[in-house]
Amino acid sequence: MLSTKWIQNKKYFKMFENIDLDNEIIDLLLNRGIDSEEKIIKFINPILENISNPFSLKDVDKGVELIFDAIKNKKNIWIYGDYDVDGITSTSLSYLSLKEVYENIFYYIPLRDEGYGLNKEALEYIKNEGGDLVITVDCGISSIEEIEFANSIGLDVIITDHHEINNELPNAKAVINPKREDNEFQFKYLAGVGTVFMLLYALYIKLGLKNEIFKFIDIVAIGTVADIVPLVEENRIFVKNGLEKLRNTKNIGLKKLLKNIYGDYKNKELDTYDIGFIIAPVFNAAGRLEDAKKAVRLIITDSETEAEYLSKELIEQNNERKDIQNNILEMVEKDIISRGLDKRGAIVSYSKDYHHGIIGIVASKIVDKYYKPTIIMEVKEEEKIAVASCRSIENFNIIEALNSMKDVFLKYGGHAGAAGFSISVDKITEFENRLDEYCKKVLGEDDYIKPLKIDRELIVDKISFEFFEKLKLLKPFGFSNPNPIFSLRNIKVTNVRLIGKEKNHLMFDIVKDSAYIRNLVWFNNGHVKDKLELEKFYNIAIKLKQETYKDKYYIKLYVEDIKESDGKENKIINYIDRYNLSFPLNSIFYTKEKLNTNSNLTLEFDDEFAKIKNGFKIVGFLNRDIFNTLDYLKKNFNFNYIIKIKDIKEKEENYNVFIEIDRDYNFNSLSIKEANIFNDIKRFLINDFNYNLFQKKVLGAIFKDKKTVLAITKQGRGVDTIYLTLAIYLKVIKDKKILLITKDKKSKFIKSYLDISNEYIKGYDFYIYDNILPKKFIKNSLVISYKDVKEVDENYFFIKDNIDEKNIEIFTEDELIEKGFKENNIYTKKMPILEKKQILNLLKTEKKIYATRDIRALL
């Protein structure tokens, strides 16, 4: 429906032994470069102890020594900040943390009219005020002349900055920047506040106060999110822990601000959206419209009265900023239309009526709408200069573009995606033309089509409270770890209607097979209502959000885009995603009954519901979405479940009972005769299928003929079923101890019945050697090998498997998925019973079958 190109991330279907996550979550992590078990565990547990050694940043040691010297000699330390949120939080963090250990701390933030970064007048002012040591935060890396001036007037300077290093390093006493090539520190993308935090962290370590610095982690989180740096590595640790701290912050100014924005903020789960779109703009408004020092005063104040006054004033300023922003946006839109700017390679709009504090936000909104590099300038007629904010698109590095024409600027700087500069008014036309020519060289037509990155295809049954709980492990979301966009394939829409005050938003329901999901919302796309046809199939790109209504949780779907479907459906993907559901699940049910965490709950399935019982009494029901999934697995793969209460929250409408659902691997049989017990075991393991010929030979030789078996077979022949048959009978029925000797990873099911080792251990009643040959004959044992054995001990009963695979092509699971787009005769053990039986019938024909090696278990 929109002019977009969908970019589908790779599906891996890879599982890790010690990580219980669904395929979809694992794929999200792998596609974000979190590609090992160690990295995944570290990513989903971003603890403060994992912050790297701050002394691995070049010159941090020098910076710490300079601060120690200033404290020892009672020098005046000045923090030199910037007027954006990163600069405001960097200044506040530095002031508060240094004030904890030393009295003579001062700060300076230039007005926006002074321009970004250090200026000589400000440095001279600091010197005249008695300044001895200046610590720059979020600025300074490009200030070569200004640092030379500081040196000439006797000001020592520690630079902490995170911006690109486009020239030689300034001649400061210490230059701390994560982008320095000579750092041992590996992560290059700290925000300004993160960079100065590392210096202060090192200082606190030297002072023996290491953990005390973490009281300010909420301030670090705000600046990190606001500066749109990648939320990975240290940044993820700062933000994850900072968000948790923020809800219970001890900072008086932040408490007042949160209360005046949200009211009862302590019961709200604050996230990166709150920081980026609600909290940060309030701080930014001060620097955009007046003086950023007002925002610093709010954060550093110890006065409740001042905090109340400042927070309300800042909120009011932000409301004023919104009005100015809307006016400028309207003016820019008119300029685009009147001058045909959307036909050029980049949009450049300038006017004396634009406000330099707002143009960056407006530039971002123009990029969102037109998807072109955008530069918005405020013209200062008296000074005959213009001040610009630049925002870019993917595949266009704006700072490289500016580097190619640096001679036209008075001053410039920034990143690949955002930059700023000042320029003489008489150079604007030249700049427009040169930028247009540059765009023609580096951008093609496809670069102007907005990419929509689809993180993963999702089956509708996964849209559930339980899946969202797993998705939460990836929070906080932000740059480089975005809130995932999922795609739903072959969906029908129904009940399409317009919503919103101006009826410019769209709401509709969707249908897929027996699933019906209500109230999807597509913001600002009411104009496509008449284009949606009820009988057509669509692919829908969505984001998931958890919401509450009348004390119940709901998963809401927010639409990013819709495209007509090609009608193709790969059932193999659906089979695998359903089967690979990871346990345990965090779930919820609602009840009027008063329970406690020791209540003994059970699940009882019928055709329509999963009843939750406390003894014989029904106390609730599983949500429909998770019922569908668990019922499917129960019917097709004999899955059984156990549940236990994790927490209970009393609400006005009901009790929210938070439960954990896990697989129940326990075997139960009421049979007495051994033949019946073995039939019960078979049904428990492989449903109503029969053992294959190889399994029958091995089990018969062991149980009927009392032989010690050495068998050679191929992988996929169902040896785990043999092992489990032996283990269940010997352990559960006969109370024997069994050891599985293997070098391979084994399932939880296997582990629940067998002890596992990679070598022989004395003291067991029965031994199973899994593709390992014992050093000597052991009577009560089974040996399975996937390789030929040259010499077989005569004490073994030798079985050599023989199977006919003439109409079968064996593939890996990944290869089979690709086949699934083209072929119908496909087998995986993860498909439901009915489809398995159809394949079993096809095995009797001459038709070609494409399968994973598990098909050998049916032969």
**Helix percent band:** 25-40%
**In what range is the share of β-strand residues?**
15-25%
What is the typical, i.e. mean, pLDDT? Answer: 93
Rg, Å, rounded: 33 Å
Give the helix/strand class.
alpha/beta
Show unreliable segments.
none
Head-to-tail CA distance between termini: 48 Å
Number of strands: 33
Number of helices: 25
Largest pleated sheet: 6 strands, mixed
Shape: elongated
3D architecture notes:
- By secondary structure, the chain is α/β, with parallel strands linked by helices.
- It is built from 25 helices and 33 strands.
- The strands form 8 sheets. Strands 13, 14, 15, 16, 17 and 18 form a 6-stranded mixed beta sheet that branches. Strands 27-26-28-29-25-30 form a 6-stranded parallel beta sheet. The chain has a 5-stranded parallel beta sheet with strand order 3-2-4-5-6, with helices on both faces.
- The longest helix has 36 residues, at 304-339.
Please give the structural blueprint.
Elements: E1 4-8, H1 23-31, H2 37-44, H3 60-72, E2 77-80, H4 85-99, E3 105-108, H5 120-128, E4 133-137, H6 144-152, E5 156-160, E6 174-176, H7 192-206, H8 217-226, H9 233-247, H10 252-262, H11 272-289, H12 293-300, H13 304-339, E7 347-351, H14 359-370, E8 374-380, E9 385-391, H15 398-403, E10 409-414, E11 418-424, H16 428-442, E12 450-454, E13 456-457, H17 465-471, E14 486-499, E15 505-512, E16 515-522, E17 538-549, E18 552-564, H18 571-579, E19 585-591, E20 601-605, E21 610-614, E22 617-621, H19 624-637, E23 641-650, E24 655-663, H20 674-686, H21 693-704, E25 709-712, H22 719-733, E26 738-741, H23 748-753, E27 755-757, E28 766-770, E29 781-785, E30 797-800, E31 808-810, H24 813-819, E32 826-827, H25 833-842, E33 849-851
Helix pairs in contact: 3-7, 4-7, 4-8, 4-12, 7-8, 8-9, 8-11, 10-13, 11-13, 12-13, 13-14, 20-22
